[in-house]
Amino acid sequence: MKLVRFGQPGQEKPGIIDSQGAVRDLSAIVDDIAGDVLSDEGLQALRNLDLSTLPEVAADTRLGPCVGRIGKFICIGLNYSDHAAETGAEVPPEPVIFNKWTSAVCGPNDNVEIPRGSKKTDWEVELGVIVGKGGRYIDEADAMSHVAGFCVVNDVSERAYQLERSGTWDKGKGCDTFGPLGPWLVSRDDVADPHQLNMWLEVDGHRYQNGNTRTMVYQVPFLISYLSQFMSLQPGDVISTGTPPGVGMGQQPAIYLRDGQQMRLGIDGLGEQLQRVVQA
């Protein structure tokens, strides 16, 4: 099952993809793709719908971020062994955790803004995990039952702000538009193995990232259990699980995004994103 949110920024409505690939309007059924809708019971109720009875949405309608009312946008750093190697970093003995602010969230095809003064805005295709059932101190064996589904994330990053401005990574990770989500929230039952997914990213047609989630160091069940030791996880929280090699910072010499460029990225079964890069 593929769930979406469509419409103008801040006014998105809930939707679902039918068997023909069209968006159907769910707003008469649920108020958003958020909260209790993300529970197993809420998702099952949507599965039981006859989608042919729902209004069809125009094909050119903007898609918003695929989950609403996000409480936390939690990210994992250096979580791919081959990406750690390209940056010259050691694989961390425990997951590296940082945050994106929820003001960074945008739609999968919205413009990505280069912040004022930025010289090192970079790209990162990542597997996003959307929490459906909250909890604390979650057992790893039970962790997947807390997942509503998965999505594509572009963990856009400003490397100078992240690494050269003192303090934590958060400065370079949470700028406005640095968190495109979607196009779809794909329910977990439709993803046979989240650790066997091809993922890729291109800038102006040149493929820089071409990886697979199999090289993830800390897998999804462990990450959910680990994070829940430090914070309550809540429905609608997003966990971005790290990126494979091929980021701009890892090129020789390094390459960063410029005004007018276009990023295209995707993950097997989770859809594609397309963003134009603009100056803030």
Structural descriptors:
280 residues; mainly beta; 9-stranded mixed β-sheet; 5-stranded mixed β-sheet
Mean pLDDT: 96
Cα-atom radius of gyration: 18 Å
Strand order of the largest sheet: 3-2-1-13-10-9-16-4-5
Number of strands: 18
Order of helices and strands: EEEHEHEEEEEEEHEEEEHEEE
| Share of residues in strands | 25-35%
Please count the helical segments: 4
Largest beta sheet, briefly?
9 strands, mixed
| Terminal residue distance | 36 Å
Task: Describe the 3D structure.
This protein is mainly beta and 280 residues long. It has helices at 40-47, 81-87, 159-163, 220-227, and strands at residues 2-6, 13-17, 23-25, 73-77, 96-100, 105-106, 112-114, 121-122, 125-131, 147-154, 157-158, 179-180, 185-187, 198-203, 206-212, 238-240, 262-267, 271-279. The strands form four sheets. The protein has a nine-stranded mixed β-sheet with strand order 3-2-1-13-10-9-16-4-5, with no helix packed on it. Strands 7-18-17-14-15 form a five-stranded mixed β-sheet, with no helix packed on it.
